[in-house]
Amino acid sequence: FFIGSLPRSTVWLRVHFAAHPRFHSTPTTELLMSLWEDLAEHHVLIVPGTIFSAASVGQDLVDQDLVDQDPLVTADGDGFFRISFSSATPDEMHRACKMLATRVRVFFKG
Description:
The structure is a single chain. Helix content is 30%, strand content 15%. It has helices at 28-41, 90-108, and strands at residues 10-16, 47-48, 78-84. The protein starts with 9 loop residues before the first strand and ends with a helix. The relative contact order is 0.23.
């Protein structure tokens, strides 16, 4: 993942969905949204990067045609999440990071 310079309370997480068992049969944007939903169900609230793209304005966020237009979903299967931690306590961040790691491992097992 990479860390942008401003604001300092935000991190962009890059996820390599090409390693997911359903990658060849499921659009990257759909995998991204599935992981996002799973994380939300487990009280980890991060934002899919596609929400920040002008290419997706007025579009279905799981529309595979957006992959060719959207720099926030790459053609080789990478998607992005934006994580903000400006209002979280260190303890909340610790718990959220542990849950994020657990849910990503579970998600990639298929």
